[in-house]
Design goal:
The protein is built from 13 helices and 15 strands. It is an alpha/beta fold. A hairpin with a 2-residue loop joins β6 and β7. The chain binds pyridoxal-5'-phosphate. Pyridoxal-5'-phosphate (PLP) binds next to α4 and α5.
Length: 370
């Protein structure tokens, strides 16, 4: 059955790829495939978008987190506090620095890290907090910065899902020492492969990050520190340049779609919306609700050609690859409860009101409210 309400909008977004292919052709003609001129231009536009002094392109959001942590001095023996329900990349990046990830539960009525649990997880070995702006909502960042200041901790924001979100007018990614973004095809600003960006206002940190992403090379013949190869590909920068200025409008489109869903779902008792903070501009990377009989509802929707997804059915802390961290089922009850009830509906700016109506009607039908 062809899908009535699709999840992926990539076919619509790139239906006419002419401008993108022309941009790639220009890179090929210049031949500047690594750290080419499009990388610098993209970084400048990205920094302007976020309102940060520097933007450093790297090869993924995962590397953005890893390199930002290394640049602020995180390594073996350190503990880094982050979310028990995040995407694997956050915890993988922390582990790659040699530090130990320490997990905390989310809030009871939102998907983001609970700040009381965060403070309770701080030990004498804690060196950093990685707040994760999951779904494009935001952790209570004033509280996180207060905890960090009192305990002398670095803050590296995982804002990979939160481009152009903000809290009290301050953009996601600009709260701590550095903010990290992903340009993955499934993220709001999506290039044609992997890519990531680190933003910071700190000149020294920016200089260190530029070295770390390129083998520690000051120039061709001088290695000043040991780094790695994590350059943002010039072709991906050229693709990103064609979309970076559209981010505010596309986030506005997602916000409008979210408001339509919120209004249409409000009277269905079996659907609970996450708490919306009035001080936060969510970018609705994901539109998630808590649903009763979630698995049956997802089957009902998918059977009718309406895509609905679960982010994520098993909270990260219970994945076998993290068993060595020593957590056990039940350690993070809010993450467990949410994993059993969350449901994501398509929310992209290409989604039509008709598609939203179709999805909402099917949800009503499922709960006998047709
Ligand atoms: C996508 C994502 C990442 C990693 O980004 P990649 O570019 O895929 O490496 C990190 N953290 C979160 C929360 C993400 O959603």
């Amino acid at each position: 059955m062809t899908s009535k309400v699709r999840y992926s909008y990539l076919a619509e977004q790139f239906a006419d790829p002419t401008a993108f292919l022309d941009a790639i052709k220009a890179v090929v003609q210049r031949g500047d495939f690594t750290l080419g001129e499009a990388v610098g231009r993209f970084e400048a536009r990205f920094a302007a978008l976020i309102g940060s002094r520097h933007a450093i392109g790297v090869n993924s959001g995962t590397d953005a987190i890893k390199l930002a942590l290394k640049a602020v001095g995180i390594g073996p023996g350190d503990e880094v506090v982050t979310a028990a329900n995040t995407f694997i990349a956050t915890v993988g990046a922390i582990a790659e620095t040699g530090a130990t990830p320490v997990l905390v539960d989310c809030e009871s009525d939102r998907y983001v890290m609970d700040v009381k649990a965060t403070e309770a997880a701080v030990t004498p070995r804690t060196k950093a907090i990685v707040p994760v702006q999951l779904t494009g909502d935001m952790v209570d960042m004033a509280a996180i910065m207060d905890i960090a200041q009192r305990h002398g901790l670095a803050v590296v924001e995982d804002s990979c899902q939160a481009i152009h979100a903000a809290q009290n007018g301050r953009p996601a990614g600009t709260w701590g020492a550095a903010g990290t973004f992903s340009l993955h095809p499934l993220k709001n600003l999506n290039v044609w492969g992997d890519g990531g960006v680190i933003v910071t206002d700190d000149d020294d940190l920016a200089a260190r990050l530029r070295l770390l992403r390129n083998h520690g090379l000051a120039h061709r013949d001088e290695v000043v520190t040991l780094g790695c190869n994590s350059r943002l590909d010039t072709i991906q920068a050229a693709i990103g340049l064609l979309m970076v200025d559209d981010v505010p409008a596309s986030v506005d489109g997602r916000i409008a779609n979210a408001a339509r869903y919120d209004a249409a779902l409000a009277d269905i008792g079996q659907i609970r919306l996450p708490r919306r903070r009035a001080d936060t501009r969510q970018n609705y990377h994901l539109y998630m609700v808590f649903a009763e009989e979630r698995d049956a509802l997802v089957r009902h929707l998918n059977d009718q050609g309406i895509s609905a997804k679960i982010h994520y059915p098993v909270p990260l802390y219970r994945q076998p690859g993290l068993a060595h961290l020593g957590y056990a089922a039940g350690d993070f009850p809010h993450s467990d409860a949410q994993a059993a009830s969350v449901l994501s509906l398509p929310i992209d700016p290409y989604l039509t009101p008709a598609m939203q109506d179709t999805a909402v009607a099917a949800i009503r039908q499922f709960y006998g409210r047709g």
